[in-house]
Amino acid sequence: MIQSLLIANRGEIACRVIRTARQMGIRTVAVYSDADADALHVREADEAVHIGPSPARESYLVGEKILAAAKATGAEAIHPGYGFLSENAEFAQAVIDAGLVWVGPNPSSITAMGLKDAAKTLMAAAGVPVTPGYMGENQAPAFLADEAEKIGYPVLIKAVAGGGGKGMRLVEAPEAFVDALASCKREAASSFGNDHVLIEKYIASPRHIEVQVFGDRHGNVVHLFERDCSLQRRHQKVIEEAPAPGMDAATREALCAAAVRAAKAVDYVGAGTIEFIADGSGPLSADRIWFMEMNTRLQVEHPVTEEITGVDLVEWQLLVASGQPLPKAQQDLEIHGWAMEARLYAEDPAKGFLPSIGTLELLEFGEAEGGRIDTGVYEGAEVSPFYDPMIAKVIAWGEDRDEARGALGEMLEDTAVWPVRTNASFLVKALQHPDFAAGKVDTGLIGRDGEALAEAPMPSDEVLEAAANSLVPITSLAGFRLNAASARSAWFSLDGEKVEIALTGEGSDEPDDAVLVTEQGQAWLLSPWRRDGVHGGADASGAILAPMPGKVIAVEVAQGQTVTKGQKLLTLEAMKMEHTLTAPFDGVVAELNATAGAQVQVETLLARIEESA
């Protein structure tokens, strides 16, 4: 059995692996960059090794540094978590060549499933149904455009080395193909070092259903049933659940059997996920479900599978990596109840889901029976601009879907984070959406109704009034009666916005300068309104500021150019995503400070638009 383990990752997945390893009596070693010197995974591990500067390409993505850390600490095995080097076959082989245990599949399996085009060819040969499309070597834009026409719009352009929703574009008409292809290839090259793409038929009302598989070195392969990950925003999973709504026994048997065939086709060892796309325009049926890709690692959403099966998947990974057989046979695995997981991110839905960075001065997670929090941060920790802005995975279990959904909503509503913004309110609204509540979910739901879901929430009058009274001296309410004919009110600043609030209490003998208002998973700062203009409104000057630190990857305009409202000005790459900045109104580019390739800091003036006369 493995006695010491290095986790080649960070954040919540590193903490997750450490938790199980500790329970198994395995010594753990963390690695960390400059930005993560005080991170939770560093604090929780038995030992920690600094591996370089904050950018992942200079630390977490440098295999040589991780191998050196393992050697220096005497670690026997390396667990890659997910992301970073977890699906890098060369790194996996380097770990093995160094005489260490790789807690993951064979490098050959990673290679076989690493490129979407080759994987689909292999799956078709194994009798696994695949979606129609082009998966060849010819990457000429004109040729790919012709193939898209043959397949029929709408089509998906997908990076063959992609994952996590990156390197993927939906194209609904021929005239949009060339720009989408260029953007997709650029993102693919930046994220994966490979700009090759495939073209795939876009399925109407698609549902994303995946099957957890597990293999050992004794020839055993089992499935641990399916998960539904259809609620997505820009191809990124938002809420996942297990089992899948509307899955009947016959369809489940066919789907899971196909997943096991897929795993066996590449001699799979360890935890893996076979992802399928289903036609959600009608009831689930085996003849309307197709293979998409295989993730040769532990998935972000693995907790929902753990909650319905009672299996610790990380424990299974460590047992299998130690050479032991799977703890359970297929007939010993059953579904118990329902589980849902929401990804709580440091981002502001009301501002286009821009990542929110800074110190977590307040961090309180809601609780519910059957609830679980997987996190890699703590109150007082920093949300860094260098990595994925996940704060936590909020997981709930229930006897049935409604119970799990209700528990998850309760946990999110009672979560409070400040001053970093989160998507908690967005998640609560998504859970309450009539279609989601009814189990009628496809990957386009948020795209259709996202504007309403992302709308900035406001605290209730009752909560605001209670908070306002704590900011007002008792003397200012002298003689005020609750049932007076005319109610008293005062002006306050709610996150900089001027609001009038009724004063219905007795006031406070020790008023605060400001108070945090928390409700529905959100937090607001309430303070008395000042006339000095400190609490200003939106800036209408036309200044285009960098919303976060990042790299300018494209400049679409020139100084002096006339632009229209909404016209693309430039593209910023930050937090592993591309962010398009547009003109706020019709006007002229009066100032342009951005150049392609430049690194910029938050609130750097990139351009200024002067309104047309």
Automatic annotation (TrEMBL):
Residues 535-610 form the Lipoyl-binding domain. It comes from the Bacteria. Residues 120-322 form the ATP-grasp domain. Residues 1-451 form the Biotin carboxylation domain. Keywords: ATP-binding, Biotin, Ligase, Nucleotide-binding. The keyword Hydrolase does not apply. InterPro entries: ATP-grasp, BC-like_N, Biotin_BS, Biotin_carboxylase_complex, Biotin_carboxylation_dom, Biotin_COase_C, Biotin_lipoyl, CPAse_ATP-bd. Pfam families: Biotin_carb_C, Biotin_carb_N, Biotin_lipoyl, CPSase_L_D2. Its cofactor is biotin. CDD domains: biotinyl_domain. This is Acetyl/propionyl/methylcrotonyl-CoA carboxylase subunit alpha. It comes from Novosphingobium clariflavum.
